[in-house]
Design brief:
alpha/beta, transmembrane, three-stranded mixed β-sheet, membrane, about 25% strand, PASTA_dom, transmembrane helix, Trypsin Inhibitor V, Chain A, about 250 residues
Length: about 250
């Protein structure tokens, strides 16, 4: 019994316990200050204004204050030079840590292009206009030409016709050619008479046509009551037929 009590209160045992608590305390303190040191706790930097500055100049400014710049997107503004910063996040004036990254949008050297959809001779003006605007195109006032009303017959860019599948700059203005409801002479199918000049017509067809064009008229004759009525009435052409009054006049003379 005495040996057990002496072991419990021995210096070796309590020394190990004190050492464990000391190590645990050092770990907690080191973890706390280590995280603060790693995350720069309590430190903040005011974000400079990088908008409308060249990308290289903005990177130099960011290095001086301890920030990092990364390009997240590109845009296009015709009036600004290429590689000019258009937008930034976070916004200027916000306080951030030195490890924070500033994302910027830079200006492209050329305008982005879009593929022209299948609209020519395949949609109405209202449908084509809505489709182009939803894709990001710029649509100008339409021009009218003879054709079916409000039907799309063509699209012009800088006065030149474009076709389905062509890549067109997004900042270009598209002019839609629309029908005004009148027909063009060129849209009417005409029969060329020269094509039929050398066509032979069969004799049967000619005689049939001649008979159809020939007019007939009945010749009227006065039949006495004591004579029989003829079984058939004679038919004569119009130019050979005469009126009963004229025949009667000739006989009387």
């Amino acid at each position: 019994m005495g040996n057990k009590v002496s072991k419990i209160f021995s210096t070796y045992l309590w020394g190990n316990i004190y050492a464990m608590f000391l190590v645990l305390a050092l770990l907690c303190v080191g973890l706390k200050y280590g995280i603060d040191l790693y995350t720069h706790h309590g430190e903040s930097i005011v974000v400079p204004n990088f908008v409308h500055k060249q990308y290289d100049d903005a990177c130099d400014m960011a290095d001086k204050v301890g920030l990092t710049i990364e390009v997240s997107d590109t845009g296009y503004v015709k009036e600004l030079p290429p590689d000019c910063i258009l937008e930034q996040s976070p916004v200027p004036g916000k306080r951030i840590k030195s490890t924070h990254v500033v994302y910027v949008t830079i200006n492209a050297a050329t305008a982005p292009s879009l593929v022209l959809p299948d609209l020519i001779d395949n949609s109405s003006y209202r449908e084509a206009q809505a489709k182009l605007l939803s894709m990001g195109f710029k649509v100008g006032d339409p021009v009218y030409r003879p054709g079916e009303r409000d039907w799309v017959y063509g699209i012009l860019v800088n006065g030149k016709p474009v076709h389905t599948g062509d890549r067109i700059p997004r900042d270009a203005i598209l002019v839609i050619q629309v029908g005004d409801g009148t027909r063009n002479y060129a849209d009417t199918t005409l029969i060329d008479q020269d094509e039929f000049d050398g066509v032979d017509v069969p004799e049967d067809d000619k005689s049939a046509n001649d008979e159809d064009d020939y007019e007939y008229e009945y010749k009227w004759e006065v039949v006495p009551e004591d004579q029989d009525v003829p079984d058939a009435i004679e038919e004569r052409p119009l130019d050979e037929a005469t009126e009963p009054e004229e025949q009667g006049g000739e006989k009387s003379e």
